[in-house]
């Protein structure tokens, strides 16, 4: 009898001990660089509510889409536009049923000298703006928007000697913060809460709506957790966080 009791106690201890060492659930979210401040706050709120930790891989949407296409680990893809998510869904890499627009972004002209912010893109041809940075339109959606804005404003060709292309919008802003460029065309979300510099909202009639989309990766090992994160982004709590960083609701 004693031996049976002891054996049972050992088994129970082992089970309890293993359960206590379990790591909390976590997911990897590949997200566009314009989302850095908003999604960092989103991750904290999501973990507090669900206990699920979020690890982010931030970068330009085009490069992130390429990484996911090539098998890079990710559970959720939050892009700066709809197209990259749609393309991966068409390949069966993103679950088409999970694709949702979650926010609409805004573009601004930002300068570290708040007194010298141009009032419109047309002013960028002035001599006082020696260099102008935009994200590379080859793979960054906000770079595509910036190029469209400059073209519609009729200054794209004139600005060619001044233009500096960054890998993503975060680097675009860094160029302006360091003084390497006079002005950067960046998402409102990255600068709305900065203590330094100043910005002017770009007239949104100069570009198509910046609708941002997300989707769940088909081969995710944590589909339930991925769905919970996507749902949180689209929830009132998630939308409130996004609006705090200047995004407009598309719900």
Question: How would you summarize this macromolecular structure in one to three sentences?
Answer:
With 251 residues, the protein is α/β, with parallel strands linked by helices.
List strands and helices in order, with pairings.
Blueprint: H1 2-20, E1 26-32, H2 36-50, E2 53-59, H3 61-69, E3 76-78, H4 83-90, E4 100-105, E5 107-111, E6 132-135, H5 141-152, E7 163-166, H6 169-178, E8 183-187, H7 188-191, E9 198-201, E10 210-216, H8 223-234, H9 236-244
Parallel strand pairs: 1-2, 1-3, 6-7, 6-8
Antiparallel strand pairs: 3-10, 4-10, 5-8, 5-9
Helix pairs in contact: 2-9
* Whole-angstrom Rg: 22 Å
The end-to-end distance, rounded to whole angstroms, is 65 Å
Low-confidence stretches: 1-20
Q: How many distinct folded domains? A: 2
β-strand amount: 15-25%
**Percent range for helical residues?**
25-40%
H-E order:
HEHEHEHEEEHEHEHEEHH
The CATH class assignment of the largest domain is Alpha Beta
Main sheet attributes: strand count, strand direction, barrel closure: 5 strands, mixed
Sheet with most strands: strand arrangement: 2-1-3-10-4
Basic shape = globular
Keywords:
251 residues; alpha/beta; D-Maltodextrin-Binding Protein, domain 2; 2 domains; 5-stranded mixed β-sheet; 9 helices; 21% strand; globular; disordered N terminus
